[in-house]
Write a structure and sequence with these properties.
Helices cover about 70% and strands about 0% of the residues. With about 200 residues, it is an all-alpha fold.
């Protein structure tokens, strides 16, 4: 309840001064409001990042998701590795991450405007959380942490901006291959450590 006080003062200021509020997210981009407009016959936008159709928005969001996977390929691969180890070692945390990612992903799917950053808010954040968990939970020594971080460092140094108009040129293939090789070195090192413990 206390959190509503600042918002109430903000709205009261507009009412007292007879000012009209303007929300660019709603007015310009029709974020979330496109759903009401769709059913009431209001203005809907198409093209570029807009996708104000039912069920067309699902296709747009899935295409954006594939672009995100392409953009964050190396972090995605490492986070899937982390997810696998989480499933083996901590099923509660595994399910919490999956459920929260699904809820946030579903929420942002209704925005109606699909630049890569909105998809990053769900899956991208899950990848980030998994990378952090992996760094601390999968690696017991400095060398292991170094090998874990190396493909990410190489990849992120050479990664272009997310709004690159050509998704096939997010990163050079040489850098991508180098990052994959360093992931394989890390995986072989981890399996070698696991065999030594057995």
């Amino acid at each position: 309840m206390i959190f509503l006080i600042p918002f109430s003062f903000y709205r009261l200021f507009f009412v007292i001064n007879n000012l009209k509020t303007f929300d660019t997210n709603t007015e310009t981009y029709q974020q979330f409001s496109w759903i009401v407009d769709y059913f009431t016959g209001g203005n809907r936008k198409y093209g570029e990042y807009f996708c104000h159709r039912i069920p067309g928005f699902i296709k747009c969001y899935l295409e954006g998701t594939l672009d995100l996977f392409s953009y964050l390929l190396i972090p995605l691969l490492i986070s899937l590795l982390c997810l696998y180890f989480l499933f083996k070692n901590n099923k509660n945390l595994f399910y919490l991450i999956l459920i929260s990612t699904f809820i946030v992903y579903s929420f942002w799917s209704l925005i109606g405007w699909y630049p890569l950053r909105f998809i990053y808010y769900s899956i991208g954040n899950a990848i980030t959380v998994l990378l952090i968990l992996g760094y601390f939970y999968l690696n017991s020594n400095f060398f292991s942490k170094f090998l874990y971080s190396l493909p990410l460092i190489i990849y992120f140094i050479y990664l272009t901006m997310w709004n690159n108009p050509d998704p096939s040129s997010y990163i050079d293939n040489d850098i991508l291959i180098t990052s994959v090789i360093t992931i394989l070195i890390y995986v072989f090192y981890k399996f070698k450590l696991l065999k030594e413990k057995i």
